[in-house]
Automatic annotation (TrEMBL):
InterPro entries: FUC_metazoa-typ, Fucosidase_C, GH, Glyco_hydro_29, Glyco_hydro_29_N, Glyco_hydro_b. Residues 414-490 form the Alpha-L-fucosidase C-terminal domain. This is alpha-L-fucosidase. The keyword Kinase does not apply.
Amino acid sequence: MKKTALLLALFLSATVLRAQKVYKPDHADLDTRPLPAWFGQAKFGIFIHWGPYSVPAWSPKGTYEEWYQYWLQTEGIFGNGDFSGKEIPDMQSKLYGESSSYYDFGRQFKAELYDPAQWAKLFKKAGAKYVILTSKHHDGFTLWPNKEAGNARNFKWNSVDIGAKRDLVGDYMKAMRSEGLKAGLYFSLLEWYHPWSRQGMFDKFVDRHIHPQFKDLVTRYSPDLIYADGEWGHSAKEWKSEELLAWLYNESSAKDHVIVNDRWGRGDRHKHGGYYTTEYEVHGVKGDHPWEEIRGMGLSFGYNRMEDLEDYNSSKTLILMLADIVSRGGNLCLNIGPRADGKIPVIMQERLTQIGAWLSVNGEAIYGTKKWSTPIQWSKGSRDFDFKAGGKKYIEGDYILKQTVDPIPGKAVKEVFFTSKGDALYAIIPKWRKGKVTLKNVTVAQGAKVTLLGADKKAKFRQSGKNLVIDMPDFDPEWNLPPEAYVIKISKVRRQKNTI
């Protein structure tokens, strides 16, 4: 009997092994790997940029503060604005002395108030479903005890040996998962000033630094998502990314659940990878491939002390941005930049809490939804917007206000954002509409209902040809609805037809 059971177990094991696909180190095969379903259902995530650059926490408005080392050592800077290039070197000399170095910030990055459990509770309250932490940015500093971080530098360059003296990634992973959040990690292929890369030993840099470092990170923490970056200087063949991804999908501890993005080689964005990425853009990604927009609450990803209240997007801006992106089939991954001590700035906490309050009422129209055949209902007018006028590199968050509640004369307005789930259609409207709301090319079946989320209030409606005309109920302050946007739910939607 025991022998029979053993033979059966061996047979079943062999069958399972044969059924598991082995991915070849080639994009054509790697791209066939199915994307775990949770990503397309999540819709809203949190990005975290945190590292030694959080110590100076300073950069001119309109620029990425986390690029501090690069701005310092190249004496050049770019972004939204006109810059001399001397801004960062001058500030470095003034605050830290002429003989100071960026590498001093590794020792000063102490994270003494870091409480990842508190972070996780805040992110959950915000309604986020996943989080991505910068395990290593372009400065090469690792937030986990990685031996490769000191390769060729001849000094320790990780958060366990200096500064915080703590495995920041490990504590983060435990905290996020304890709150039921998917825990992702950002990993930069590029290191601006690694000696091997700077000295022309790129193959050595890839083989003996990047690959073993990446494998160490994945083996230790088995992340749910990996956000690669810094790929733009070299092709995937030069980075040997296809080999690395084949290892990830075939052999790693995360092989059965991990999701990756599209930043694995120069020119590969929106062509290869698990999901596609955009950054400070407004057009999203064409087609039905999963995608994600990343941007900050202000403009910088790393915490920037130069940003004032007016530089931070309002909760209305961020929520309309979320509705806009989700209606077009994407996810919004909104960045926060903690201070060097590990505290999340209060204004960022407030914005996250406001987003969470809106989602607690209207999340049904966001989570698990799909793109409607007509994602957005436009008014009449020109849809030709130039949000990079004046030489701007990044499209700022007020783009969505200019397309909705603060329109540009002569330009079209996004009147409604649509999402769908089953036979239900959700119409997200940017501002309260008195009287009638007409939804173009929406037809319902007999027995349909129209309700206002959060008010549990049924609305009268009628079919007028191809359009659904809704009589909005009189607004009642007792409903206590979040004011950033309102959601009308239409059940038993029968027909989907594209509009112009």
